[in-house]
């Protein structure tokens, strides 16, 4: 060992006293693994991925979104991962921002899902224009459609949409109109309760993205934008930003439902929303009764804004961390 390293150890030892521990319900078993890379290949939503990581829906429809999406897509292609596009709503109006979303050429064969909000689907169904969604999926060469269900975000948004129907009805009508089951349903950062989850498990869709409470909170974000424009009389609405369900809660409900009905195990999950670390994600993956991947949104945003190199390095570190988890952390 070099003298410099020995000196570093002496100097840094006093600054390296960590007293809090966060095991996420896992046992650290230093005797059981090695530093060999583990095969992380997994299956979810009918796709094979090289690691259980999903780039959750984020952006599009703004100038800098184009570079961000391109980098995310290239990283998915490089590491064998999957990606959901941000809301493709701008493309329902015109092709002006098509280049932001048209990233099939970068992601290659990896799964790429288009994304639309429940409000847009409700509008298209009412106007008998669902062919626009099929055309959109074709234009993007998408593997399927992610539907985001965000009633609280809409309610706290300055120019938010109002739903005329309960989202479950719109989802059912979308499945009928599109005549395809390659559909994933998600929230946008507040998760959903057991009754909604059960209804989704009963539908002929591919699965659910939890998009749970604890990370990016769009209701809070929209309220902050709102407050800037309006007055403090809107303050009572803010309480709704603190409503929601964590990934741990949602997974427990889904697991219980899957124990009661094994057909639910044919669906897949993106465990996302406030996942703070690979160790936490790994712990949740290990608990899942359904095929599952870990989804991150905001955690990928910053490295994707920096550069391709920074993003690739970040994801490579995540993959190495998953390997470490598999080697040295056990649930029992
Ligand atoms: C910048 C940004 C934009 C987002 N845009 C969308 C969107 O267009 N459609 C969608 O379904 N979710 C969107 N989300 C929500 C994420 O997909 C995810 O559900 C949520 O951010 C929770 O994940 P996180 O805690 O890892 O950020 C967005 C998130 C971020 C950070």
The average pLDDT is 93
Spatial ordering of strands, largest sheet: 4-5-6-7-8-9-10-11
Number of helices: 15
End-to-end separation: 36 Å
Name the descriptors.
binds flavin mononucleotide, eight-stranded parallel barrel, globular, alpha/beta, TIM Barrel
Q: How would you describe the overall organization of this protein?
A:
With 332 residues, this protein is α/β, with parallel strands linked by helices. It has one domain: TIM Barrel. It is built from 15 helices and 12 strands. The chain has helices at 3-12, 65-79, 89-93, 98-101, 104-107, 118-126, 131-140, 151-156, 167-178, 194-201, 218-229, 247-260, 278-287, 298-306, 308-328; strands at residues 27-28, 42-44, 47-49, 53-55, 82-84, 112-117, 144-148, 183-186, 207-209, 268-272, 291-296, 329-330. Strands 4-5-6-7-8-9-10-11 form an 8-stranded parallel β-barrel, surrounded by 6 helices. Strand 4 (53-55), helix 2 (65-79) and strand 5 form a beta-alpha-beta unit. Helix 2 (65-79) crosses helix 14 (298-306) and helix 14 packs across helix 15. The longest helix is centred in the last third of the chain and has 21 residues, at 308-328. It is globular. The model has no long low-confidence stretch (mean pLDDT 93). It binds flavin mononucleotide. Residues 56-59, 86-87, 115, 148, 186, 188-189, 211, 215-216, 272-275, 296-299, 301 line the site of flavin mononucleotide (FMN).
Task: Write a compact overview of the structure shown.
The chain has 332 residues and is of the alpha/beta class. The chain is 45% helix and 14% strand.
């Amino acid at each position: 060992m070099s003298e410099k390293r020995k000196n570093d150890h002496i100097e840094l030892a006093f600054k390296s006293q960590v007293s809090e521990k966060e095991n996420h319900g896992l046992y650290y078993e230093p005797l059981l693994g090695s530093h060999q890379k583990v095969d992380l290949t997994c299956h979810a939503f009918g796709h094979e991925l090289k690691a259980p990581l999903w780039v959750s829906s984020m952006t599009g429809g703004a100038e800098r979104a184009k570079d961000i999406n391109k980098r995310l897509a290239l990283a998915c292609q490089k590491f064998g991962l999957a990606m959901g596009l941000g809301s493709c709503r701008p493309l329902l109006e015109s092709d002006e921002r098509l280049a932001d979303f048209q990233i099939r050429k970068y992601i290659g064969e990896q799964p790429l899902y288009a994304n639309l909000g429940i409000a847009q689907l409700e509008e298209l169904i009412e106007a008998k224009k669902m062919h626009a969604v099929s055309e959109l999926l074709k234009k993007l060469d998408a593997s399927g459609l992610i539907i985001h269900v965000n009633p609280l975000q809409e309610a706290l948004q300055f120019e938010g949409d109002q739903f005329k129907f309960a989202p479950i009805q719109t989802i059912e009508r979308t499945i009928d109109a599109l005549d395809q089951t390659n559909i994933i349903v998600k929230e946008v950062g507040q998760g959903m309760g057991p009754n909604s989850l059960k209804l989704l498990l009963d539908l002929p869709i591919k699965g659910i993205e939890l998009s749970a409470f604890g990370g990016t909170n769009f209701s809070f974000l929209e309220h902050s934008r709102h407050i800037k424009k309006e007055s403090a009389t809107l303050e009572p609405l803010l309480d709704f930003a603190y409503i929601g369900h964590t990934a741990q809660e949602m997974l427990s409900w889904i697991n219980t439902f899957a124990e009661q009905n094994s057909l639910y195990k044919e669906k897949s999950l993106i465990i996302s929303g406030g996942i703070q670390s690979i160790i936490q994600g790994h712990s949740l993956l290990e608990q899942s009764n359904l095929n599952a991947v870990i989804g991150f949104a905001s955690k990928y945003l910053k490295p994707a804004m920096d550069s391709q190199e920074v993003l690739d390095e970040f994801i490579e570190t995540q993959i190495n961390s998953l390997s470490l988890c598999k080697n040295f952390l056990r649930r029992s």
